[in-house]
Amino acid sequence: MSEATAWLLRGARIHQGTQWADEAVLAAVGGRIAYVGDLRKLPRRLEGAGVEVGRQSLEEIHTEGGYLCPGFIDVHLHGGGGADVMDASPGALSQLARTHARHGTVAFLPTTVTAPYEQLHRVLEAVEETAGAREEGAELLGVHLEGPHLNPARAGAQNPEFLTPPSLPEMQALLERFPGRVRWVTVAPELEGARELIQYLREAGVVVSIGHSDATYEQAMVAFQWGISHATHTFNGMNPLHHRAPGVPGAVLTAPGVSAEIIADGFHIHPGVARLLWQVKGPDRLLLVTDAMRATDLPDGRYDLGGLEVDVVGGAARLAGQETLAGSTLTLERAVAWMVEAVGLSLAEAVQLASLNPARRLGVAHRLGSLEVGKDASLVLLDDALRVRLTLRQGELMYDGQGDEFEDAAHGGAGALDGEPSEMLDHEEAY
């Protein structure tokens, strides 16, 4: 990654937990947040990540309003912009990272679908190669394995041909070959051999999530004791909540230490159910995810997901000829807006579900998830319509609302400071 520009952002309300700081500025130096506060108290010299600059060297962006938020983090992301994680190539990973950076995502877990372990090894090989190169778009934090140890009764859009019972030796071999890369695994705990797998993953520091599961309430509660601490796309890919058989959803709702994710697109979950989850799990244990597939940011049409044909109509992705939802075309930008407009959260509350909460679950809240001095300058600017107008990742401009994203102005690219300013971003002379 090239050396980041030193920025001064002013004119927006700045996210500070459940509140907004009005009439404040944010300075970013060396890829880190160096100052948040009153412009009149801005120090003459600022330091970040060992880099020190004078305030006159800051490249100023006047936002003309809007909301400056911590960058979004997606722990469940399959694809976008025509690319899919299962393409198992650095090019595909870079393409989906660029696509989602346009919508405010600064970090993500590329998420697999059910596949043979040989194919999972190829995905991890691509991740290794990508992580070692100069990344463009959102930061790759590791991998989320959604399967292959899922229940065929709740397969959803997971290819049933590749579903298998838990295999501890194969999972061990994968984690040993790619140490530290597997950060999250979705598993159905009612399957034979799941206990040993879950306990191994927990001890390895991996987040273990219940998903595509037909477990009873009692089975799920026991699995939480084994080490499952999260629920994959809650209410989707699991048995329904019933007053005499609460199943997986009932267990997730009543287990206080278990976090839950939702696909907030208006197709996967009703606003009233999202509100219920918020009331039970919010504000700290509810996460927004996209579950996005390769059709994200592309027109309606026919696509594939894990070898299955998917039709996208009106933005909803379903298995061809069926009503089964097959991932989504959602972005976290739209998920945040839906939680505000359809569910009734405040914007500050909705932003936390897409930033600080996933950062905490991944163990990266020391540098991501909130706008605090010393943390990464990975942030997103939303306009009053809650559309993304700016994305910075570790101080580098990923998107500027003009379509000139992913270019490095310092190396002659068409960056935000070249050409006409966008509607919201008014680049001024250095302070």
How many beta-strand elements?
Answer: 27
Q: How many helical stretches?
A: 10
- Describe the main β-sheet briefly: 9 strands, parallel
Helix percent reads 10-25%
Q: Strand content of the residues, in percent?
A: 25-35%
What would you report as the Rg, rounded to the nearest angstrom? Answer: 21 Å
Give the low-pLDDT segments: 403-424, 426-431
Description of the structure:
The chain has 431 residues and is of the alpha/beta class. 24% of the residues lie in helices and 27% in strands. Strands 10, 13, 14, 15, 16, 17, 18, 19 and 20 form a nine-stranded parallel beta sheet that branches. Residues 403-424 and 426-431 have low confidence and may be disordered.
